[in-house]
Amino acid sequence: MKAHLQQEYIKHYGKEASATYFSPGRVNLIGEHIDYNGGLVMPCAITFGSYLLVSPNNDQVFRFKSLNFSEQAEVPLQAEHKKIGEVWYNYPVGVITHFINDGKNLQGLDMLFYGDIPIGSGLSSSASIEVVTAFALNDLFNAGYSKLDLVKLSQSVENKFIGVNCGIMDQFAVAFGEKDKALMLNCDTLDYQAVDSNLGNYLLAIINTNKPRKLAESKYNERVQECQTALAALKQQLDINYLCDIDTETFEQHKHLITDATVQARAAHVVAENDRVKLAAKALSNNNLAEFGRLMYASHQSLRELYEVSGVELDTVVDYSKTNPNVAGARMTGAGFGGCAIALVKKEAFDTFSEEVTAYYSNKIGYAPSVYASLIGDGVGMLNEVMSGE
């Protein structure tokens, strides 16, 4: 891959790149719609991601080219840049602007990006681009940021420059990811634990439903509001800041305070899902993939019935997975209403799984999903360092 990208760089810029960086995408293994409820999530880095090849220039400009998109740009080295439409290079321009506004000393760069994350799949291609750009600039110009600083900086770019009100999980996972480890992350405190997650003879199948996700944002905001309503009701008797401050037992004792049945169902999912993350960490660290798979199925059922953020496409993938003896567990991952599902599939059975789930899904939905195989990979780094960790 690196040799191929270097050839592409020479073709575009007429010289070799002086450094190559890689930042992965991510999936959330379990812990969905928890991040805005002060609880635990369990993302991991995947083996797809964003590559960035760079070399300095003396022209005081940043040049952006991509092997994935036709748009390219030449941006002068100055303090004030604004988002331009919906073009891909808004992400690196946003990062550069943040560095400059922080008073960091930069110089011009010729930059070539390439990503093998399926675009729009919910696997965090935007966070991957932000973090790889921030990491590269920090490394090249000795900017002095810690890795956590880079995560917060990238989230700030997404929120303020791009205008998407995301949490911090995506940027955190692609920066701090470790091979064969899941990250149990407290979204409130940012404390995290790297959980041993050796999948043995299993791999992570990522199934992109290829459904356009038009509902996601409005329904997402609706769910946030419902959780706030539930929290306010529980606060009548409980001294808590978030729904995830209580466990299932405490919730059962106090759920009568939430008089709306729908709002009560939303809260029931959140509290139980937070408990499932703790159980999942235990199962993975004990190498109990059967138990972890059971928790994946339970998570999906809760998201389907109590939180109502799944949909026929995601359900079809999980329903098929339950019939396949080579699958330990499956669930939707991400905000829902389309996007991706994940499944734990035996390595030697992946090709058959891919063919069968594609046929089953196509027959029911009318078009095919895209199916990818991934392992749990490392977070952001220089490409040589990332590769040597494999």
Automatic annotation (TrEMBL):
Name of the protein described by the UniProt record: Galactokinase
HAMAP family cross-referenced by the UniProt entry: Galactokinase
Residue positions binding ATP: 66, 120-126
Keyword DNA-binding: no
Catalytic activity entry: alpha-D-galactose + ATP = alpha-D-galactose 1-phosphate + ADP + H(+)
Domain spans labelled Galactokinase N-terminal: 7-56
Taxonomic superkingdom: Bacteria
Residue numbers marked as site, Transition state stabilizer: 26
The species this protein was found in: Mucilaginibacter phyllosphaerae
Pathway terms, separated by semicolons: Carbohydrate metabolism; galactose metabolism
